[in-house]
Amino acid sequence: MHQKDKSEDEENINNKVVVDGHVAPEEEESNLKGDYRNVAILLFLYILQGIPLGISSAVRILLQNRGVSYKEQAIFSFAAYPFTMKVLWCPIVDALYVKRFGRRKSWLVPVQVLIGSFMIILAQNVNEWLGDGEGNEPQIILLTVVFFILWFLTATQDIVVDGWCLTMLQRRNVGYAATTNSCGQTGGWFIGYVILLVFESPEFCNKYIFSEPRTEGLITLAGFLKFWGIIFLITTVFIAIFKKERSELDYELEEHPDYGVKKAYPILWEIVKLKPVLKLSLFLLTAKAGFAACDVVTSLKLIEYGMPKEKAALLAIPLVPIQLVLPFIISRYTAGPRPMSFYIKAFPYRLLMTIVIGLFVFFTPKMKTDDGFPFYFYLLLVCIYMIYQIPFRSMYICDMSFFAKISDPLIGGTYMTLMNTITNLGGSWIQTFFLWFVDVITWRRCIFDEDLLLSNSTTLPLDNKCSDKIEKEICAKSGGQCHTDIEGYYIEIGINVAYGVVWFFLIKNLILHLQSLPAKEWYVLSRKEEQREMVQVSKDK
């Protein structure tokens, strides 16, 4: 009897949360009273996190504007890989810390100091590395290494802030963590990508802001990096001095168990070895190949055809409402026990829109006039992209819903992180490959007027393939122009669609099979816990 009372007392304690020295019931409805400041802090930290990611996306567009090849774009795409691999060091960030300073601040403070300092140093050299100035060429390898480090630091900051949400917010408000993450990171990316590209553009600023033409925009990339680097440092100082980290109570550590470095990696390995997870990994690593060229090459191809980079950035604005509203519209299909059934329905529509986008890009040069592109061009492009977002976002939401459905509840965070890592890797390696491959299957040559050929045939670079910026400049200086005989982008669209059709019919039954498996087939720790309980019951009998 005494043992039973003790157990009930422990359960009652675990169902309550201490707030300002008082015990509050877990069942309390969500109420931000007392947490407004914490939500604001988390939101700002996520905004800061999104800014380096947006800057990296902007640099990709700036490189395209400087005439780099798609092979070089493929190399630069490796910079984003740390976000697809953060599960590899996530257990270390969770397990190692200085208790006196705080579990999350032990990592947040040094990481954000490094990010801020790194951005300030990068600001001193970024223009030269991008190839600005007489005789300079874009230093792709160096830029890739630099932004890889920046993405690594930002991914680490993401791990820290995700963990801090669980203890900074009162228990009744932990549900706001996902909202602050989504809104903050999207807002930061918007600042680092759209705001930078639009106001860095001399053409846009001369047309809409400056009364007299200038050679530079309202802001510069170097100045933008330096400004936000300083903001990172100032924010970190304030967090270190003024923000106290609430100590994690015993029951919180039980609910969000810290398995430590030694236990975390074996658990990850146990998950990976599960047969359903291996089959799901095959699906996740190959699913996005049907849309690779459409997703990663299209915007670069439009810029190559003459669309201003600031207009490319502004296209992101009308897509935001769809990203916010669509999850609520399709939740009736994705929140149930079979979210992947809706994935299968959305897949053909996304494949169809891939063909539509490829055709639109094909006709893009024909729509260009001496004054640029007409209004109807941008209207059509926005409409097509908005329609494409529906199956695109739907498939993403279905993936997330399925991951939540199959994740072992005892290690839900680790399981979800692993699933996200695999699906992100499935997108990254495919996009990198098709960025590289588009140059391989594109045939260009430098052509000259007949009169020029007759007079200077021995000195002209007739074997010039216009394969990179240097060869294109040599061709232009020689009086020729680069002509594309075979455009690799359209071949890739064809390959992607053909692959997508075959993949769909081969993998569809596998997806339905995985969806129909009982939950215990996906579990590791929960299955062991269930087995221990069964053994205990048999002993009691």
TrEMBL record:
GO molecular function: acetyl-CoA transmembrane transporter activity
Keywords assigned by UniProt, alphabetized: Membrane, Transmembrane, Transmembrane helix
Regions that span the bilayer: 39-63, 75-98, 107-127, 139-161, 173-199, 219-242, 312-330, 342-363, 375-392
Gene Ontology CC annotations of this record: membrane
Entries under Gene3D superfamilies matching the protein: MFS general substrate transporter like domains
Record's bilayer topology term: Multi-pass membrane protein
Compartment(s) where it occurs, according to its Swiss-Prot or TrEMBL record: Membrane
A biological process term (GO) from this entry: acetyl-CoA transmembrane transport
Keyword Membrane: yes
Pfam family, one: Acatn
Name listed for the protein in its UniProt record: Acetyl-coenzyme A transporter 1
Species in which this protein is naturally found: Chironomus riparius
